[in-house]
Amino acid sequence: MIRVLLVDDQPLLRSGFRALLDLEDDIEVVAEASDGQEGLALVKKQLPDVALIDIQMPVMDGIEATRRIAADPALAGVHVVVLTNYGMDEYVFDALRAGAAGFLVKDIVPEDFLHAVRVAARGDALLAPAITRKLIDRYVTQPPPTRAGGGLEELTGREREAVALAAQGLSNGEIADRMVITPLTAKTHINRAMTKLHARDRAQLVVLAYESGLVTPRNS
Questions:
Q1: For 117-150, how does the pLDDT look when each residue is reduced to its tens digit (9 = 90+)?
Q2: Per residue in 202-220, is it b (16+ CB within 10 Å) or e — as a string?
Q3: How far apart are CA 41 and CA 10, in angstroms?
């Protein structure tokens, strides 16, 4: 059973998401919150698999709530997916840096919404290649300050190669084709790199790849 926490200051929107999720046999909504502070407290209490968190809320916004969840080792199993009205805006970019696994636009179609919740719960490819490419576009137009090192010295050559390809928006299957390895081996390289770099998920791995200088926008 996938345990989901909803955090949004709009009751009608929460009700809509809950109605969709409650229809699924493998998903359970364990709690709802109307602001980030309440949501953070409930995350600690309920330990959901997925926390769907709105970005703009009173008391504590979704970015700060995400940052605190990502910083707490006891919450390592909680995958945060931020909710936004506007797509890849500045707030979403900040949320990904804070440790969000990905994001959903609130007008997403039901089928895609349910699929995203299941993908997030698995801890698999949490940032779809298409979204990774949007993140890359953002770096191209507004590169962040480079963070030296970033733990990359811990990676093997093949792991660095796999991370660089992931940061260019390639899926595990595409990485496997480029590196002439199996998709399972590609996934293993990515997972080991995430462990060594203390990245919660693929989204944070992409951010780290750019901020460490492993990949630069001109190489994408």
A1: 998 888 755 555 555 556 656 655 555 555 554 5
A2: bbbbbbbbbbbebbeeeeb
A3: 18
